[in-house]
Amino acid sequence: MTALLLHACCAPCSLEPLRMLREEGFDPTICWCNPNIQPAEEHDRRLAELRRYCAATSTPLIEAHEDYAAWERGVAPVGARNRERRCRACYALRLAEACRVAEREGFTHIATTLAVSPYQLFEVCNEVLERLAAARGLVPVIRDFRPWYPEATRRSRELGMYRQNYCGCRFSAAEAVLDRARLRDERRAAKVAAHDAQAAAQKAAQPKEEHHEVSVCRA
User: Residue 205 and residue 70: Cα distance in Å, rounded?
Assistant: First the structure.
């Protein structure tokens, strides 16, 4: 089997990539490097979940150096103004460290679980990984794992894994709150519209009352 370093953002998103890469003949080792995850309690909770899963499945785990100050300098200034720029810088910081670890540890192939979630910027992430891997002589294993996101969700729930509801940084947390509020409003509006349509259909289906004129005979 071909040794491969798999950068992992969390345990749930690791499930399907691990399964599929093994089926392809790779022998994955997980690499954790996510200085974007805030607050610290959230970061530690996700890492603890990944540690538990790796221990339970005998999957090797490397915890790479996480430069929080570099994230604040290189990513935070973009903030909410430009999501693509922010995510590109964030991907680059995390994947650069993963590529450094891969080269140091003698891996020839590298991949990331960031390609699982439909909420990530898939093309941007792949572009960043390809560039950074090439700079260190690594082979980037690019796969579209997004079609298996529902299966990863199902399996992670079955396993009782902690599942976060935002990507990681404070900006994505704020965006997730707004997205959930928007979806609630859309569902509420759809429910009201469906109720009104049903009421209108029932009213239209009711038989109309016939009105008969009564003739009065006047003597």
Answer: 66
Q: What is the CATH number of the domain that holds 76?
A: 3.40.50.620
Nearest to 113 by CA among 213, 3, 19: 19
Q: What is the pLDDT of residues 111-149, one digit of tens each?
A: 999 989 999 999 999 999 999 999 999 999 999 999 999
39 preceded by a cis bond (ω within 30 of 0):
yes
Number of domains in the chain: 1
| Positive/negative CA dihedral, 108, 50, 89, 123 | positive
Amino acid at 120: Q
Tokens of 83: 């999501």
Integer CA distances (angstroms), 199 to 55, 195, 202, in order: 56, 6, 5
Q: How far apart are CA 69 and CA 81, in angstroms?
A: 20
Task: Please check whether residue 179 lies inside any domain of the structure.
Answer: no
Q: Among all chains, which residue has been given the structure tokens 């969390």?
A: 10
Predicted TM-score (pTM) of the model is 0.83
Burial environment of residue 125 by CB neighbours within 10 A (0 to 12, 13 to 18, 19 or more) = buried
Give the sign of the dihedral formed by CA 158, CA 159, CA 162, CA 167: negative
